[in-house]
Automatic annotation (TrEMBL):
<protein>
    <recommendedName>
        <fullName>Tetratricopeptide repeat protein</fullName>
    </recommendedName>
</protein>
<dbReference type="InterPro" id="IPR053137">
    <property type="entry name" value="NLR-like"/>
</dbReference>
<dbReference type="InterPro" id="IPR011990">
    <property type="entry name" value="TPR-like_helical_dom_sf"/>
</dbReference>
<dbReference type="Pfam" id="PF13374">
    <property type="entry name" value="TPR_10"/>
</dbReference>
<dbReference type="Pfam" id="PF13424">
    <property type="entry name" value="TPR_12"/>
</dbReference>
Length: 706
């Protein structure tokens, strides 16, 4: 019934089944089917609620096909919210499902191709939401391969082949739009037309997939008319839109997002023909292609998905107008919250920003630039409170809304996306961060110029990100270029210039060029003393790195002197339990060990670990680093049984915090295995080494896990 588009009948049948006392797997599958029905009917809030119930019922396990169905619902919800972070999470869920299937019996060819199409579609949506054009092209090639395989293995008329062709035609059109090549765009529109005809032949006119394919084609005809400025093409688009509007209204109802999209497209078409009035409010921003997410196409209009378009059309056109007095009060409160943040009072700042955002949303609307500015600051405050995942989600929503309202290359849109990239890096998702930084940098260079401070800041961050990906030579070269540009534009001792020189020194260390790193850090430390003062956090951070370099060069006695002085200054400035004070004490303990003073090193590691556990919690990465240092010292003292217990605590803590495949977790497994070797428990050690190697081999390479 769902495949035939009989929404109400399917919904009633599934709701009846949900109420029966069925076994858990049957109930879970029923919930997943019901969520899919609501998503196809355009009832996204209810689809989201039922999806949550289904995932609770799955409890982390469940049938792969049920999980894939829920992922398809998640994709629809992500399109509805216009949220690149949500799209990224759907993509990661599908990659994880694929990894779990390895070694399982081969599924039927149809189901396997269906899974490939869904995964590629999600990857394409994610890439487009971030304007990652190169990745869009790569995924389009994957879709072409999947469509060819489906035709060869299942036949050209098989439903999965037709579905693959529909997705491929959408992807080809989206990539063609970016080429500013009318013949290529025209070819892509004809491919959409062919896909729609095949869908109609395979499924019938009223099937939801056919209606989607017909809508894709009709809206693309209108985009082509705008591109080539042809009255004949405009007439062709109008005919196609009228035809599919009748089919969609009959098939899915006038309130379905697709039907709403078509009504808006027809308004735009009449406006272009000079026969219709100019729509007001959000209607003037409405267009035109099913899956476009806030991607600029035309200077007067922005592309929206039908889901977002439907939401926009049903939003009140004139939200309540705030008085000038209230607007002034809100701006004053916003500035006060910014001041709280500058003073380091991030919890208070967060509360104030939330109050301002709530009032602005009520009085100005959720997509008003001032509302989005407040939500941006909420995310920024959350990031300062180390709530990186929460902050990332809000930055993603703000980025999507700003792209829709202001345009994807507006400075505010780029700022939100750049913060997303920063947080992806903090969460260890470095390849995704690289994708976002690269796209933002390209947009900044186009719109601001190569040496604009914001462009240079993005390049600085990208250089750091390259290092996190292990590409240290590239990171070093890019950082040198940024330092030269910043010195030229801002001055040799500007804080931003010194920040990039600091990253150059770090890259030199990672490349094993410790003498050069030491010299650079010392230069930066001296300049920061002059520019910022001796007690500034960045000055003290540079002194810490000087100690690191000395230790790496075997000059541990000198490093010890540096750390002793740094601990005193950190304690005086920030207090004995400040994380950076404890970090300096950790460095002191490491160098005590390098000098063979292992009893002192053990005592220092235990003291630091105790404070970190109390202040930060037992699972905090810094606490686990200290616990590992305890294990190292115990090993050097020959106390291997005690060392093993500490190593195991570290491994468990890291796995809980970071997941089983994180590099730090794999390193902990190797530490534990080495300890077992020292205890003569060779078989256990070999098992652990093998487990670490298998997990390392299974770690995904790049965004698509390939």
């Amino acid at each position: 019934m769902v495949d035939l588009g009989e929404w109400e009948e399917a919904r009633r049948a599934l709701e009846t089944a949900e109420g029966l006392d069925a076994e858990q797997p049957v109930r879970t599958e029923t919930l997943a089917d019901l969520a899919a029905v609501h998503a196809r009917a355009g009832d996204f809030e209810e689809a989201g609620r039922i999806t949550g119930l289904a995932r609770l019922a799955l409890d982390g396990g469940g049938d792969h096909e049920v999980r894939r169905l829920l992922s398809s619902v998640d994709l629809a919800l992500a399109r509805w919210s216009n949220d690149p972070v949500q799209l990224s999470q759907v993509a990661e869920d599908l990659r994880e499902a694929d990894r779990e299937r390895r070694g399982a019996p081969e599924s039927q060819r149809s189901a396997e191709i269906s899974a490939l199409v869904l995964r590629a579609a999600v990857e394409f949506e994610w890439a487009r939401s971030l304007n990652a054009h190169e990745h869009m092209v790569q995924v389009t090639d994957v879709l072409a391969t999947v469509a060819a395989r489906a035709a060869a293995e299942l036949g050209a008329r098989h439903p999965q082949t037709v579905t693959a062709v529909i997705n491929l035609s959408c992807a080809e059109f989206e990539t063609a739009r970016r080429t500013e090549n009318p013949p290529r765009l025209q070819s892509a529109v004809r491919a959409l037309e062919e896909a729609a005809l095949r869908a109609s032949d395979c499924f019938g006119d009223r099937h939801p997939l056919t209606i989607t394919a017909l809508t894709n084609h009709a809206c693309a005809e209108l985009d082509l008319a705008r591109a080539v400025e042809s009255p004949a093409q405009l007439e062709r688009a109008a005919d196609a839109l009228h035809a599919v509007d009748r089919i969609a209204t009959a098939g899915v109802g006038a309130e379905h997002p697709t039907a709403r999209l078509l009504k808006g497209a027809l308004k735009a078409c009449r406006r272009m023909q000079g026969t219709g009035g100019v729509p007001i409010g959000y209607g003037s921003q409405l267009t035109l292609v099913r899956t476009a997410v806030g991607d600029e196409w035309h200077p007067r209009e922005e592309l929206m998905s039908p889901d977002v378009a439907s939401r926009a059309l049903s939003t009140p056109q004139h939200p309540a107008v705030a008085s000038q007095e209230l607007l002034a009060l809100l701006e004053e409160s916003h500035e006060f919250a910014l001041h709280l943040g500058e003073q380091g009072e991030w919890s208070s700042a967060l509360g104030t920003h939330r109050q301002v955002a709530a009032t602005r949303e009520t009085r100005l609307g959720p997509d008003h630039p001032d509302t989005l500015a407040s939500r941006y600051e909420i995310a920024f405050a959350l990031s300062k409170l180390d709530r990186h995942a929460d902050a990332l989600g809000i930055f993603g929503q703000v980025a999507g809304a700003r792209a829709r309202v202001l345009g994807p290359e507006h400075a505010d849109s780029l700022a939100a996306r750049q913060e997303m990239a920063f947080l992806l890096g903090r969460l260890g998702r470095h390849f995704e961060a690289f994708q976002v930084y690269t796209e933002v940098l390209g947009a900044r260079e186009r719109t601001m110029g190569a040496e604009h401070p914001d462009t240079l800041r993005c390049r600085h961050n990208l250089a750091f990100n390259l290092g996190q990906l292990g590409r240290w030579e590239e990171a070093y070269r890019m950082a040198c270029e940024v330092a030269e540009a910043r010195s030229r534009r801002l001055g040799a001792e500007h804080p931003d210039t010194l920040a990039t020189l600091y990253e150059i020194a770090y890259a030199l260390g990672q490349l094993g060029r410790w003498e050069e790193a030491l010299a650079t850090y010392r230069d930066v430390a001296g300049a920061r003393v002059r520019a910022l003062g001796p007690d500034h956090p960045e000055t003290l951070a540079t002194r810490y790195e000087v100690g690191v370099c000395l230790g790496r060069l075997g000059r541990s006695a000198q490093a010890l002197e540096v750390y002793h002085a740094l601990v005193e200054d950190r304690t005086r400035v920030h207090g004995p339990e400040d994380p950076e004070t404890l970090r300096a004490r950790h460095g002191l303990g490491v160098n005590l060990g390098r000098l063979g003073r292992w009893e002192e090193a053990l005592a220092e590691a235990r003291a630091v670990c105790a404070v970190r556990e109390r202040a930060l919690g037992p699972g905090h990465p810094d606490t686990l680093v200290s616990r590992r240092e305890i294990a190292v010292a115990l090993g050097w003292l020959g106390r291997w049984e005690e060392a093993l217990a500490s190593y195991r605590q570290v491994a468990r803590g890291r796995e809980e915090a970071l997941g089983p495949d994180h590099p730090d977790v794999l390193a902990s497994l190797k530490d534990e295995a080495h300890c077992l070797e020292q205890l003569g428990r060779t078989d256990e050690a070999v098992t652990l080494f093998r487990r670490a190697a298998e997990r390392a081999a299974d770690r995904p390479r790049g965004v698509d896990g390939a």
